[in-house]
User: Which sequence fits this backbone?
């Protein structure tokens, strides 16, 4: 017999204790975040641009100087890329100006060397200028693919 004045007691169910979980290691989280392609801030047009796309366009600014091997002046490639992408990606604006300044400087140095060929010193300087052009353009292209701005030596800053 139960007394109505006593509260009903509920049967107690044994509670299982949860096993403590191992804390998440910070290194695992960091490794996962490295694989995520985080987009840069939106361009002025509002389009999100990935970091790899920015690096590629910066690299193209420098590598497009090799268009001279197809009969065009070496400054045409950097000029076209700079004019098309400078308002969309700020890094392309910087890399494009740098590449264009260097290509125009090399063109000027080469034009100065042509009359010096009559004094024979131009024949020595033209291959040196060509070799420097090749080396610095390759270095700048590799640096841009790593996301770094390469400041060309011996460059006249026409565009600032």
Assistant:
């Amino acid at each position: 017999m139960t007394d109505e004045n006593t509260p009903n007691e509920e049967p107690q169910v044994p509670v299982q204790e949860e096993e403590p979980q191992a804390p998440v290691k910070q290194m695992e989280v960091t490794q996962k975040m490295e694989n995520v392609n985080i987009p840069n801030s939106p361009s002025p047009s509002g389009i999100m641009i990935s970091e790899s796309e920015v690096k590629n366009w910066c690299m193209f600014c420098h590598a497009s100087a090799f268009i001279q091997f197809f009969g065009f002046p070496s400054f045409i490639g950097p000029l076209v890329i700079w004019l098309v992408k400078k308002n969309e990606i700020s890094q392309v604006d910087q890399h494009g100006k740098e590449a264009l300044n260097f290509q125009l400087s090399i063109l000027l140095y080469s034009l100065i060397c042509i009359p010096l060929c009559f004094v024979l010193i131009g024949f020595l300087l033209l291959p040196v200028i060509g070799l420097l052009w090749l080396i610095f353009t390759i270095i700048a292209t590799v640096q841009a693919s790593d996301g770094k701005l390469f400041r060309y030596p011996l460059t006249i800053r026409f565009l600032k």
Helices lie at 26-34, 51-63, 76-85, 90-116, 121-145. The two ends are 98 Å apart (CA to CA). The longest helix spans residues 90-116.
